[in-house]
């Protein structure tokens, strides 16, 4: 059964929970699929809010549902402190039509943005645990400008052929802990970029996909600093890369205090790779090396 959870009803439930001064909980009940259009969950909230996903939240299948909206986001949480997502249910991005339109699948298609399934922006003291996130339109879970994040017991999956479907993406965030999770997608299982620090990743199963990556860094001559990253305990299988640091020519900054340990790999094409000539572009990147 699919139930249409109207945007207004969803927003009203969020606003009510956010306005209470006592700890509050929004429950997505088990046994139902809820069709949810792009929605914005904004803070700050007066209380600690838990979104208890027991059933399944499903995105619109047709990309036309984003007409006139921000094509980069589906479920967008921002400016919230002490938020918890849990429950053992599923978030399904229904990404097949998005993937078919990608210029990486068909080079005659224009390169356009696609939504991240779940985005957390400027959230603090955040917990995301015991959930399945599947078939993301592009990235599955993104933490941007977040502080103190704990993530565990996640299952994140998309087919190996799905383009740009990073499992967990960390950008400009600090104090992020990811553990005891399985990530199987068409791109990086975990990617860490742009001025992130104090990242701890433990007990991860990764593959298929592109492995665990720091970067890409320095695109369009930008500056990036990534520091204090620990990956301790991972099993990677059937991935293009194992553990990787990738930078664009022309950029500046550094990646420091990076530790990869207790990593086991099976059928991995590039087990350890540091790529300072990274180029993810339709046209070859010009050589910027000076002699």
TrEMBL record:
<feature type="active site">
    <location>
        <position position="210"/>
    </location>
</feature>
<dbReference type="InterPro" id="IPR000743">
    <property type="entry name" value="Glyco_hydro_28"/>
</dbReference>
<comment type="similarity">
    <text>Belongs to the glycosyl hydrolase 28 family.</text>
</comment>
<keyword id="KW-0378">Hydrolase</keyword>
<dbReference type="InterPro" id="IPR012334">
    <property type="entry name" value="Pectin_lyas_fold"/>
</dbReference>
<keyword id="KW-0961">Cell wall biogenesis/degradation</keyword>
<protein>
    <recommendedName>
        <fullName>Polygalacturonase</fullName>
    </recommendedName>
</protein>
<keyword id="KW-0134">Cell wall</keyword>
<dbReference type="GO" id="GO:0004650">
    <property type="term" value="F:polygalacturonase activity"/>
</dbReference>
<keyword id="KW-0964">Secreted</keyword>
<dbReference type="GO" id="GO:0005975">
    <property type="term" value="P:carbohydrate metabolic process"/>
</dbReference>
<dbReference type="Pfam" id="PF00295">
    <property type="entry name" value="Glyco_hydro_28"/>
</dbReference>
<dbReference type="GO" id="GO:0071555">
    <property type="term" value="P:cell wall organization"/>
</dbReference>
<keyword id="KW-0326">Glycosidase</keyword>
<dbReference type="InterPro" id="IPR011050">
    <property type="entry name" value="Pectin_lyase_fold/virulence"/>
</dbReference>
């Amino acid at each position: 059964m699919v139930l249409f959870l109207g945007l207004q009803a969803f927003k009203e439930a969020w606003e009510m929970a956010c306005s209470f001064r006592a700890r509050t909980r929004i429950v997505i009940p088990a046994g139902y699929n809820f069709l949810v259009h792009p929605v914005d969950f904004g803070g700050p909230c007066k209380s600690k809010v838990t979104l208890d996903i027991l059933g399944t939240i499903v995105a619109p299948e047709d990309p036309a549902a984003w007409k006139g909206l921000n094509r980069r986001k589906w479920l967008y949480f921002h400016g919230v402190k002490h938020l918890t997502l849990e429950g053992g249910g599923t978030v399904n991005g229904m990404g097949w039509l998005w993937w078919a339109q990608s210029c990486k699948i068909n080079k005659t298609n224009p390169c356009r943005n696609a939504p991240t399934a779940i985005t957390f922006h400027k959230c603090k003291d955040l917990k995301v645990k015991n959930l399945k996130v599947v078939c993301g339109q592009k990235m599955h879970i993104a933490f941007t400008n977040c502080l103190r994040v704990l993530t565990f017991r996640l299952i994140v999956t998309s087919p190996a052929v799905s383009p740009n479907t990073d499992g967990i993406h960390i950008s400009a965030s600090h104090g992020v802990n990811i553990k005891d999770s399985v990530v199987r997608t068409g791109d990086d299982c975990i990617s860490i970029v742009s001025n992130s620090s104090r990242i701890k990743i433990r007990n991860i199963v990764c593959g298929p996909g592109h492995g665990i990556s720091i970067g890409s860094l320095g695109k369009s001559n930008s500056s990036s600093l990534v520091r204090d990253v620990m990956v301790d305990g991972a099993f990677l299988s059937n991935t293009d890369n194992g553990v990787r640091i990738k930078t664009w020519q022309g950029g500046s900054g550094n990646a420091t205090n990076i530790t990869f340990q207790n990593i086991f790999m099976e059928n991995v094409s590039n087990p350890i790779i540091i790529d300072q000539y990274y180029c993810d572009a339709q046209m070859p990147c010009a050589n910027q090396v000076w002699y």
